[in-house]
Amino acid sequence: MKPQKGTTVAKIGFLLVCILVFGGIVFGQEASPAQKSKPVPPTSLQQAESAASSSVKSAAEKYFTDVELLNQDGQKMRFYSDVLKNKVVIINTFFTTCTSVCPPLNRNFEKLQEALGDRLGKDAFLVSISVDPETDTPPRLKEYGRRFHARDGWIFLTGKKENVDWALYKLGQYVETKDEHTTGIIIGNEAKGLWKKAFGLAKPEELFKIVEDVIADRM
Domains in the chain, please, with CATH? Predict the structure, then answer.
């Protein structure tokens, strides 16, 4: 795993990287240091958008797109309409064979799940996207989720590599090799257009404070 840029700042336990308001600043428009290249848009997405060219879409839907992914139960999920639309989401990236930062990153998600309690899947959703979709099949994600006692409202996503790469690119999290993925997490309130990034290995209580602020639409 490549060292995170800004780790000296991260040592204080918490790093709020940025606040992005969709529409004011186009989310993910500028490539991050780890995202210097752009994946090829999936062929299936190009065909779907051509067929639906006359439909009216929101700015967020046009940006994020409805590229098709699969959850841990093998169910098809449209990236914008099923995963993001009108939801508060806390998103991380990982892969199941990672033995360095991924386990503690997802242990933090497990603690966020505990903090949310019955609000998980209602007020906020946890979303973990594999950067190694060719290895991380839905059954493998399902088993991985059990290690962290994942409940309904914690969604693990995989799918065709070109589709996953595109979704990651739209989030500013695309990497060419799985070991380059970052420990940054994204916390967003899609309905309000409020998006924040945070250091995923920060103290859970500090991350939960940001989650609460995003749920309440507090800048």
Answer: 16-41+58-215 (3.40.30.10)
